[in-house]
Amino acid sequence: MRTVLYPGSFDPVTLGHMDIIGRAATAFDRVIVGVLYNPDKPSGMLTTAQRVECLREATAGLENVRVAAFSGLLVDAVRACGADAVVRGLRTEGDCDVEMQMARLNRQMGGVETVFLAASPACMHISASMVRQIATMNGSLRGLVPPSLEARLETLLRRTK
Ligand code: ADP
To answer: What is the pLDDT of residues 114-150, one digit of tens each?
Structure first.
């Protein structure tokens, strides 16, 4: 039984994340989507609970996917959830530089392997930060986030002042 942990901030979940989750769910027996947070330094726009709730709704149709929140080191989260490896998505060369360094550190610190999935051409331009920016300026999130979450995320992320 091969279990992988797909960690991220998911603030909010995007169609780019969903592409990686769906493909990982096909390639591995179990996928745990891990919302990583720092309890001492909350950051971003959505709360951890909102991120988890959105991910749970978006992945409800994927039987071998579950969503959980983790704080602390990634190597500890991998151990805590019994995962065999970490999955990450790669969009650009910029992603590669950062991701390679993280993968090597996680391997050195905890013997944790990282599996990379290349972003699909259809969603490699999507990032959670762009989605947040568009929503705060009252833009439409159609084609950027899971359809069932479009309206809710447009409201949650809209600038109120
Ligand atoms: P973002 O980089 O969008 O803020 P996260 O920090 O939550 O999102 O990223 C979690 C993981 O998802 C990372 O491995 C990141 O490279 C990957 N990822 C994010 N957006 C995409 C996308 N559009 N296509 C493929 N992978 C992505």
So the answer is: 999 999 999 999 999 999 999 999 999 999 999 999 9
Secondary structure (H, E, C), the chain: CCEEEEEECCCCCCHHHHHHHHHHHHHCCEEEEEEEECCCCCCCCCCHHHHHHHHHHHCCCCCCEEEEEEECCHHHHHHHCCCCEEEEEECCHHHHHHHHHHHHHHHHHHCCEEEEEECCCCCCCCCHHHHHHHHHCCCCCCCCCCHHHHHHHHHHHCCCC
Tell me if 91 CB under 6 Å of ligand 1. yes
* pTM of the predicted model as reported, rounded to 2 decimal places: 0.95
32 assigned to a ligand binding site:
no
Nearest atom in ligand 1 to the alpha carbon of residue 9 is 7
Query: Is 129 touching ligand 1 by the criterion CB < 6 Å?
Result: yes
111 is in an annotated binding site: no
